[in-house]
């Protein structure tokens, strides 16, 4: 069900709003059994902005009372940058649809493996085409953690908060102001991990690596300083940078060194990035062949290892971050930890699993909508298979209500497939038994928030 008014939420028997303006769960068992699913559904599907915000506040406060805290992973990455810890790769998980259901699967696997070194992220572009605001994404994942009895920090990350090069060329200050607004919104909604992406500004036609990376370094440093100005007291937001667009030319040690030198010069004593995204041969979503199958990807693991090593020894950062790895064969994931990759971003394979288990009738309906409404995005050389595969992510927001209305049996099969995928990933990436490391190096903050903090508009970009 979707809550229709505030009285249905605060019923005085299961959930109450106290005179002091906090949330009180009066019956934990009934809250999980009768309220929590409806809270998640209201946040995701209600047309009432106030009720969405109210449910988001409840998700935060009930989570806080139960020891579930949005946090920065900076402390763990600082320890890695000092060389105190190694041997694992943190998965950063983008969930594009059925986020509440899939997040429950993540938390179940985390509890099974005593794991806590994992991140939930959403890219700026995903916010729009999946019809998931930062507030919604945060809230349903917090509710999933509560439902599964998870305890401890939860890491929310803004992925690819990217400068748009065309906008930057036309009006530099307006584009910077736009991205600052997105970052501020994310921080206000407890995203304490932000990946700044200035890689579209890299100009390989310039002479010398420093000049090629100069604009990227400058804008990353400018936004890093801004984050330090707005981050909540006591919270050290974890920042990432990027030196090469995924799908482009492979990154080099010289490019990384040039970027970091420029970045450090511009920081004015403020703390900069803790990790660096590089290009090593992958493409977001993988490379789909004309028959719809995926091409084999060859990752340059030696580049990951070399840049991670220099990053630690020379600059004290955690190391390299790998994008576009979702569609790799499962045996390849063990190499990320072996070659000292600090973090790997995963999205497309989870989306592919969703489409694999989607009923044929709905899948055909979605594909027909794509052919009609997204035909302007089709390249002349693409086959139908390539076109559908490349753009089908953009139908998820349009069909969001129907997707949420899938039968419990179908959702169960989708989530079970996801759970199997997470099991393999957590094992291959070496994050089993990572909870003690998180408890040792990550600082959590028990911050009470007011209802008003969550009642603003949902628009993020």
Q: Output the CATH class name of the largest domain.
A: Alpha Beta
Number of helices: 19
What distance separates the N and C termini?
Answer: 29 Å
Widest beta sheet: strand line-up: 4-5-6-7-8-9-10-11
Q: Assign the CATH superfamily of the largest domain.
A: Aldolase class I
Q: Based on helices, strands and strand pairing, what is the structural class?
A: alpha/beta
Overall pLDDT, averaged?
92
- Rg, rounded, reads 22 Å
CATH architecture of the largest domain: Alpha-Beta Barrel
Order of helices and strands: HEEHHEHEHEHHEHHEHEHEHEHEHHHHHH
Number of domains: 3
Biggest sheet record? 8 strands, parallel, barrel
Shape category: globular
* Beta fraction: 5-15%
The helix content, as a percent range, equals 40-55%
Describe this structure in words.
The chain is an alpha/beta fold and 461 residues long. It folds into three domains: 6-65, no CATH class; 70-356 and 406-443, Aldolase class I (TIM Barrel, Alpha-Beta Barrel), CATH 3.20.20.70; 359-395, no CATH class. Helix content is 49%, strand content 11%. It has 19 helices and eleven strands. It has helices at residues 6-9, 28-45, 49-65, 74-81, 99-112, 124-129, 134-147, 165-170, 172-188, 209-230, 253-265, 301-315, 334-338, 348-357, 360-373, 384-391, 400-404, 408-428, 435-441, and strands at residues 15-17, 23-25, 68-71, 90-94, 119-123, 152-162, 193-197, 238-242, 275-278, 320-322, 343-346. The strands form two sheets. An eight-stranded parallel barrel has the order 4-5-6-7-8-9-10-11, surrounded by six helices. The longest helix has 22 residues, at 209-230. The model has no long low-confidence stretch (mean pLDDT 92).
């Amino acid at each position: 069900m979707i809550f229709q008014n505030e009285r249905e939420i605060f019923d005085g028997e299961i959930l109450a709003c106290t005179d002091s303006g906090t949330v009180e769960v009066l019956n934990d068992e009934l809250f999980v059994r009768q309220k929590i699913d409806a809270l998640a559904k209201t946040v995701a599907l209600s047309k009432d902005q106030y009720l969405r915000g109210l449910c988001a506040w409840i998700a935060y406060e009930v989570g806080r009372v139960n020891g579930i805290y949005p946090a920065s992973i900076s402390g763990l990455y600082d320890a890695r940058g000092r060389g105190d810890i190694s041997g694992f790769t943190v998965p950063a998980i983008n969930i594009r649809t059925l986020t509440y259901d899939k997040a429950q699967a993540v938390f179940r696997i985390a509890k099974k493996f005593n794991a806590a070194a994992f991140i939930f992220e959403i890219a700026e572009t995903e916010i729009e085409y999946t019809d998931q605001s930062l507030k919604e994404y945060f809230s349903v994942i917090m509710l999933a953690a509560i439902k599964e009895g998870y305890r401890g920090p939860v890491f929310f990350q803004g992925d690819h908060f990217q400068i748009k090069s065309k906008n930057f060329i036309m009006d530099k200050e307006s584009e910077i102001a736009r991205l600052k607004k997105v970052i501020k919104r994310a921080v206000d909604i407890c995203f304490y991990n932000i990946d700044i992406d200035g890689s579209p500004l890299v100009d390989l036609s310039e002479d010398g690596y420093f000049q090629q990376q100069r604009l990227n370094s400058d804008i990353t440093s400018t936004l890093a300083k801004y984050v330090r100005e707005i981050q909540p007291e006591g919270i050290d937001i974890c920042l990432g940078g990027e030196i090469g667009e995924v799908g482009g030319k492979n990154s080099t040690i010289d490019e990384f060194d040039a970027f970091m030198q420029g970045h450090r010069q511009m920081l004015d004593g403020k703390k900069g990035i803790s990790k660096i995204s590089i290009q090593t041969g992958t493409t977001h979503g993988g490379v789909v062949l004309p028959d719809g199958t995926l091409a084999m990807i060859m990752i340059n693991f030696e580049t990951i290892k070399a840049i991670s090593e220099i990053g630690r020894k020379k600059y004290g950062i955690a190391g390299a971050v790998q994008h576009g790895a979702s569609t790799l064969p499962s045996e390849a994931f063990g190499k990320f930890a072996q070659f000292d990759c600090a973090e790997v971003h995963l999205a497309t394979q989870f989306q592919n699993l969703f489409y694999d288990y989607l009923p044929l009738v709905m899948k055909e309906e979605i594909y027909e909508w794509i052919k009609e409404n997204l035909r302007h995005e089709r390249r002349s050389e693409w086959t139908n298979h390539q076109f559908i595969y490349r753009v089908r992510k953009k139908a998820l927001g349009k069909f969001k209500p129907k997707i949420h209305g899938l039968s419990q049996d179908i959702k169960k099969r989708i989530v079970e497939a996801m759970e199997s995928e997470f099991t393999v990933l957590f094992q291959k990436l070496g994050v089993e038994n990572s909870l003690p490391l998180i408890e040792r190096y990550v600082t959590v903050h028990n911050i009470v928030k007011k209802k008003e903090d969550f009642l603003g508009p949902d628009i993020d970009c």
